[in-house]
Design goal:
By secondary structure, the chain is α/β, with parallel strands linked by helices. It folds into 2 domains: 8-143, 3-Layer(aba) Sandwich (Cobalt-precorrin-4 Transmethylase, domain 1); 146-272, Methyltransferase, Cobalt-precorrin-4 Transmethylase, Domain 2, CATH 3.30.950. The chain has 10 helices and 12 strands. Bound molecules: S-adenosyl-L-homocysteine. Residues 38-39, 63, 113-116, 119-121, 144-145, 149, 196-197, 223-228, 251-253 line the site of S-adenosyl-L-homocysteine (SAH).
């Protein structure tokens, strides 16, 4: 891959930042498992930035913004280790074993994943392989799409008038089917439900939640390519969530709950783009989920 790298002065500036913040040195033979955030490259953490600029090899996923790779050291090896067009280019076990073998060669190995590495991203599986193999590793958390991505849509994960509880759920089981989850408990216990990887089964999930007592007309949204320049937000209702989610393969976070309505006031990206919808009336159904 051809890439414009940052120059020596810019690299020195990143090193200076690492010194000021007393960030740990990336030692040879270590694996750092880091989150790159949901898309906007600015959402990388200082530790993640330091990791990118000091590693010898970077294995990155499809959801990582490639602009971040410009910060890599000259000569650093960049390996795409994600899914493209629905096809798994690298098997999970191959990736885990590669991490072990390159670390054992004494390289500084960065495993860079979208969002947070320990949220629905198989980072824990990779870390377990490293632990089993006795390879030293560090976890660098990232901004997860279900929080940071929603924030870019003007939808707060919590607000005390709308929800004291938020639940993160995957809509995609290991076998590709809808995971076997206690949807009734989720429907009853969590006013705000955030769904990852749920496009395919969104209709089925909505039906389960409605039959467990959730209001079919409840606010919901589909946030695609969250925090990226091509982010889209489709506000809908729970009963229409399946329809709103279908027909696209872009990564999307689905969110159900009163907090979605706050977007009418908090759509700061829309405001930046000059969308002047004027103040909309905001009628929130107050929840009492504090027990
Ligand atoms: N570790 C990641 C999640 C990986 S699972 C994290 O913490 O965010 C992949 C799923 O994450 C996608 O199917 C989608 O549901 C969600 N996702 C990741 N990036 C996204 C983005 N920019 N916009 C919307 N959804 C995103």
């Amino acid at each position: 891959m051809s890439r414009d790298l940052i120059n020596a002065a810019e690299r020195a500036a990143i090193q200076r930042l690492a010194d000021i913040l007393a960030l740990p040195v990336f030692e040879r033979g270590w694996v750092w498992l880091a989150g790159a955030g949901p898309g906007d490259p600015g959402l990388i953490t200082a530790l993640g930035l330091h990791a990118i600029s000091s590693s010898d090899i970077i294995l990155y996923d499809a959801l990582v913004n490639e602009a971040l790779l410009k910060l890599a050291r000259p000569g650093a090896e960049l390996i795409f280790a994600g899914k493209r067009a629905g096809k798994q280019s690298c098997k999970q076990s191959d990736i885990s074993h590669m991490l072990v073998s390159v670390a054992r060669k004494g390289m500084r190995v960065l495993r860079l994943k979208g969002g947070d590495p320990f949220v629905f991203g198989r980072g824990a599986e990779e870390a377990l392989t490293l632990a089993r193999a006795g390879v030293p590793f560090r976890v660098v958390p990232g901004v997860t799409a279900g929080i940071g991505g929603l924030a870019y849509a003007g939808i707060p994960a919590t607000h005390r008038d709308t929800n004291h509880v938020v639940t993160f759920v995957t809509g995609h089981g290991a076998d590709g089917k809808l995971p076997d989850i206690d949807w009734t408990s989720i429907a009853h216990g969590s006013p705000t439900i955030v769904l990852y990887m749920a496009r395919k089964h969104a209709g089925e999930i909505a039906e389960k939640l409605i039959s467990a007592g959730r209001d079919a007309g409840e606010a919901a949204a589909v946030v695609s390519n969250a925090s990226c320049s091509d982010q889209t937000v489709h506000v809908t209702t729970l009963s229409q969530l399946g329809v709103a989610s279908a027909g696209s393969a872009t990564p999307a976070i689905l969110v159900i709950g009163e907090s979605v309505k706050l977007r009418a006031r908090l759509d700061w990206i829309g405001a930046l783009a000059g969308n002047t919808r004027g103040p909309e009336p905001l009628q929130l159904v107050q929840v009492n989920d504090a027990g």
